[in-house]
Each structure stands twice: as structure tokens, then as C-alpha cells.
Design goal:
Blueprint: E1 2-7, H1 14-24, E2 29-33, H2 36-43, E3 51-56, H3 60-67, E4 77-82, H4 87-94, E5 100-103, H5 108-120
Length: about 150
Amino acid sequence: MRVLLYAQADVESSDSLEKLVKIAFPEGKIEIFRSIEGLSRRLREPLDNRVVAILLPNSREDLSSIQSIHHLFRDIQIVLLAPDSSPETTAAAHQLRPRFLTYINSDFEELGAVLRKMQKIPRRNEEEMDWGPGERGEKKGQRFPFKHSNA
């Protein structure tokens, strides 16, 4: 798994986040970006199968800059630490469709647990998914990871 970490150096939480990421992904390939331009250039290059982008925008304007390159995050799992918890910022953050959303001033303990879990769960592509009855051309004897209700 490759980890792309975006955190400007002047953000107070960036050092703590960087340490947490290195602990959660000890054998992972971690790339750190201090500018949107650098992150954008990297996202335009070929990437591994499993990529997690951990984004720490330092302001609502920085979050808007990340939104401007949202199309480059296709097939990338996003973990976002929003700069504040205002309704406007939260709505903007959800537009990036993060796998996990927290806030810059929150406790990193929960974030660490999420990152460790993400590392252990292999990402499955659509061909490997177990679909429910009648979905995506099920095959006889196929396993289903969820229960169906007849209601």
C-alpha cells in the first residue's frame, strides 16, 4: 500500500500526523507533500493498486484547492482531517467522499485505529465482489457478505 500524505509544514498537527502515519504504515511506502502542486503532480503519475491519501488542509481555502483536483483522486481512498467543524467546511469535506473524516483539532487516537484497519483490509475490485441476489449477474453458490430481508 502506498500512502500519500498532504500536510503543509506550518500546520501545528502535521508533525504528529506524520509520526502517526509512520507508525500505522511501518512497511508502507509513504510520500509526503507540502503543496497542492506537488500532490497534484504525483497524482498524475502512475500509482500502485492500493493508495490512501491522507489530507490535512490548513484552511477552508486549502480545502477548496484540494477540491479543485478531486478528479485526480479516482480509485484512491481518502482520509481527511478538515480544518474546522463548521457546517460549510463539513459539507465541502464530504464532497471529496472521504473514507474517514475527522477534524484537525480532534484526538488522533481514533484516526490511528482507522489507519491501522485500512492497512489490514485488502481492497477488492468489482470483479471480486460478492453481490446480492439479482445484482451484477450473481452466480450459483456465490457467497454473500450480508443478510437479505424479504420485507
